[in-house]
Amino acid sequence: MEASIQRLEFEDFPGRTLTVLLFKDVTNSKELRELVMSGALQPECSLANAELVPSLLVLRVAAFKALLAQQRGALRTKSLHAEVVFNLAGSKHIPHPLDRFGINPGCRHLLAAPFDASPEEEAQLQGLIAGAPTPLAELPLLTDQQLLIKHLKVTPEELLVGSLADAMLMRSAGRDC
């Protein structure tokens, strides 16, 4: 099965795109994490644990916030792609969100998201990840709800009035207030 690739555009950042690819049953997470940690991942991209990203909207907001921080010269991490992963969490502490929401050695399902990727870079990325390319419509089905509730400290009352994606978006928005 071919990966369904989606390109997100950002109205406030003309010409900037985020290409999103989803992979299931990834077997080389440890090696990919080592590449990320050493800065040797080519093409450069955000690698996020898909089990902790309940919707594409959450990723879009994280990417938008990363672009905005870059424009303002206010990145909190070492790169634009790391900033996307950092923005997935509601925490202000950098190491924990990157370890939890980014790729880790045991990561089974993976979102790969490079900014402004060429078709060649997309193909290179698909060849780098040893996993099953998966339609993005399956992203919500891969969510580990209990783990996400634990990491975000979501209360049962919150889930009565909104979804896990809503809880993530609220924490992300509130972090910068």
UniProtKB/TrEMBL annotation:
UniProt keyword terms in alphabetical order: Nucleus, tRNA processing
Statement: the UniProt record of this protein carries the keyword tRNA processing: yes
Pfam families, A to Z: CGI-121 (PF08617)
Coiled-coil portions: none
Domain of life the protein comes from: Eukaryota
Cell compartment(s), UniProt: Nucleus
SUPFAM superfamilies: PF0523-like
Gene Ontology cellular component terms for the protein in this record: cytosol; EKC/KEOPS complex; nucleus
UniProt-listed InterPro entries: CGI121/TPRKB (IPR013926), CGI121/TPRKB_sf (IPR036504)
Gene Ontology terms: biological process: tRNA threonylcarbamoyladenosine modification
Family, per entry: Belongs to the CGI121/TPRKB family.
Protein name: EKC/KEOPS complex subunit cgi121
Organism: Chlorella variabilis (Green alga)
